[in-house]
Amino acid sequence: MKRIIFSNPIRRRPFSLPEKFRKNIMFVVFMSILFAGISAGAVSGRYADEALMKNLDLIFLTNFKLRCADGMLSAFVSSFASAFIFILTIFLLGLSLWGEVVTVVIPFIKGYGYGLAIGYLYTAYGFSGILYNILVVLPGAFLCSAVIAAAAQESFRNSVKLITIFIRSAVNDDPRIQMKHYLLSMLWLLFLAAMSSVLDMLFSFVFSRLFSF
User: Are 31 and 109 in contact (CB under 8 A)?
Assistant: First the structure.
C-alpha cells in the first residue's frame, strides 16, 4: 500500500521582524538613543535656569526670547548653525577608525538638548511653554532630530567599513566609491537639515509673535 504524504504548502517560519524594520533597525536604534536623551533632558530641564539656556543656545537653540524677538533670517541662521555643528562632528567621526564609539553618543546629546528645552519651557511657563514647543520648536526639531539620527547611522557604518579595510586581506568594495557614497549621503542630510531650519524659520515667524517670554 502506497503511503500518501501530504505536504503543507504553508511553510512555518520562525518569528522574524518585518523586512522594512530589519533594513532600518540601525536607524531605529539611533532614534531610540535620541529619545532617551530627550527623556533625560526633560528631567534636567526642570532644574535649569534662564542663564544656562542662553549659554547653550548656539548648540541647542534654547534662547527662546531671542527667537521671539529676532527676524526670519536670524532664526534660520541660528537653527542651521546648530544642525551644522552636529552634522560636521558626525561626519568627521565617520572618517576615523574609532568614530563609531563616539557617534553613538551624538544623538543622545542632540536629544538631551531638545529635552532640556521642553523641561525648561514647561517648568518656567506652564501650558504656554508647551504650546510654544508644539507650534514653534517641534516641527523643525523633529525633522532635524531624524536627520541627526540618520547622519549618525551613516557615520557609524562608514567608520566600521574603514575598520574592515584594515582587517581584511582583500577588499571587495572600492574605497573611493565608498567615500563618494558617504560624502553624497552627508550632503543630502545637510540639505535636509537646511530644510528643518527653514521650518524653524517659518514657524518662528508665524507663531512666535503670539508668545511673550
Answer: no
